[in-house]
Amino acid sequence: MHLADNDSEWEQHSGGSGHRDPEWVRGDEDRALRYWEALDEKGRDILRYLIRHPARKIHHTELVKELRLDPEGTKNPANVMAGSLHSMGGGNKAAGRRYPFSWWEKKNGTCYAMKEGTAGIFDNALKASQVAKSWGQMVALNSSAERVWPLVQRLDDVLDSADVRLVLGSACTTALKAVQQFVAALQLPYEAAEGWTEFVKHLDSRPASRQQCIVVADACRLLKHEDHEVWCELAEALHSGPHCLGGGWSTLVLLDEETAWDEWTFKTLTEVRPHD
């Protein structure tokens, strides 16, 4: 059952006083990080699962089973779930917000769910935090199309000294198209658009002091009609640093749906493994 964020069902929860604090709203990404940092590992596993499956009521037995909260399978699932949630209260206090999820107690057990909007806040906060710690690296992430632009905006906030650029992989399925798109997005000199060799040469000659984050949405379609070696050459040229001289870096962020990564043309040819 999918619940819209404005569905009256959310107000019929069994959360009690845990939902008296203010609701989560756009711009609460820093609070979301404080909430996350206050959780123990089991609490984070549960929250991550709810973020991945927003707006869906999830029975407590599914959470216990899928997250292996009771590896031996000898305990009462309801008790296991209750014990796994004990750190959530500390998250509320740290963030100054209510529980980021709701639950409904029924005779056949308890169901948990997180609103789409709240899941987006946590998703953006956690992904941007990960990228911010990965200067000069290539980072591959699962991301739905509707969460791409909010993530770019969040990266622009947390990487305040960096230039954040967005490129659509769906517009770069061949080398020729990629050259045109990247030259425009990265504002490279006109000469860089003359061909693949000139393009890569200009990427390699960018200033060592440059701090840049290049986000590629629809990443699995990037150079899909080219050989794997061409993809590798571009990926290598787009991320580098941090540089000893100049202090610059270029981070490459690849975003796409989980299903797209499963069907990615170069999946078996690279060590790139996307994560949440």
Kindly describe this structure:
The structure is a single chain. The protein has 276 residues and is of the alpha/beta class. The chain folds into 2 domains: 8-119, Arc Repressor Mutant, subunit A, CATH 1.10.10; 134-262, Rossmann fold. The chain contains 11 helices and 7 strands. It has helices at residues 29-37, 41-52, 60-66, 77-84, 88-95, 116-132, 148-158, 175-186, 196-204, 228-238, 258-262; strands spanning 58-59, 102-106, 109-113, 138-142, 163-168, 211-217, 249-256. The strands form 2 sheets. Strands 4-7-6-5 form a 4-stranded parallel sheet, sandwiched between helices. The protein has a 3-stranded antiparallel sheet with strand order 1-3-2. Strand 2 and strand 3 form a beta hairpin. Helix 3 (60-66) packs across helix 4 (77-84) and helix 6 packs across helix 7. The radius of gyration is 22 Å and the shape is elongated. 34% of the residues are buried. The mean pLDDT is 93.
